[in-house]
Amino acid sequence: MRNPLASAARIVRFTAVMYKPHYLLYGVLWVLALEGTASLVTQPESAWRPAGATLVRIVVVAFVLLYLRMVDEQKDLEYDRVHNPDRPLVTGAVSAVELRVAMGLIALGAIAGSLALSVGSGVMIAVALAYGLVLWGLEWLFATVRTNIMVNLFVTYPVQLLVTGYVVVSAIDTGEVRAQWQAAAIAGVFAGAFLQFEFARKTSRERRPDELLYSNALGAKGSTAASLLCAVAAVLCDIALVRPWEYSSLLAWLPVPLLLMPAFGALKFLRGDRADYPPLPAVVFILALYLTLIGQALTLP
């Protein structure tokens, strides 16, 4: 391994290339929307406001997302050599050893920061970090996990649920959320929102057997339908938990018209002639939904 300063500089460059600002934005909005909505549906009589513990959770999740990006860079190395030859690990801009050292430091910092909030917070984030390594091992051991995208989704998505669980458990421990079944059910909103984007970004009208696309397994129309159904599921779950008919504010109903965004993306793809699904409507939907959820948590009680 190179000297520490040179390695640190390479990790910084890796982060600048592979951890774009929109990843950080997503992490911040995810934590705020998740904590705020869990507070709204478990203690609607009191207004939610971000606290110091919220900031700690944002920092932890932001670094955990970077940790998982580093895991992906290593476990997808063979695939990237063919399909993404400009990736830093492929080109040698960063080494596997440097990534692993950075991952170790991130893990230590995330666990320590979370333990400062509560034991439950530390345990949950440690489990999420460990599961990232389990995924790496599963893909290395089993070809089906590497090559079958539906199996891969089934195996890899739980890491998102574990991070969601970390935020909810930590917020319960620090008093922002009550320990009620609604706090767990909130995961359905965020699973649906993320998966609508996940299906959309890996959908093409062209069959490409050498690439991991959901449209290879489900067909272009099937993958498009899956994305739309996930968006609808997210909104229906939010409505069931928030119960917007109990509020006079139209903000409570705003998630419903937001469905026009993924619907527009699907229509544009199915009626157009471009090969790949347009990602922008899916991105706008998830960000707009999270901003709406934050607004609901701040203003509805």
TrEMBL record:
Keyword Transmembrane on entry? yes
The keyword Cell wall biogenesis/degradation is annotated on this UniProt entry = no
Annotated keywords: Membrane, Transmembrane, Transmembrane helix
Residue stretches spanning the membrane? 23-41, 47-68, 89-117, 123-142, 149-169, 181-197, 218-241, 247-267, 279-298
Name the Gene3D superfamilies on file: UbiA prenyltransferase
Identification of the protein by name: 4-hydroxybenzoate polyprenyltransferase
Q: What is the lineage of its organism?
A: Bacteria, Bacillati, Actinomycetota, Actinomycetes, Mycobacteriales
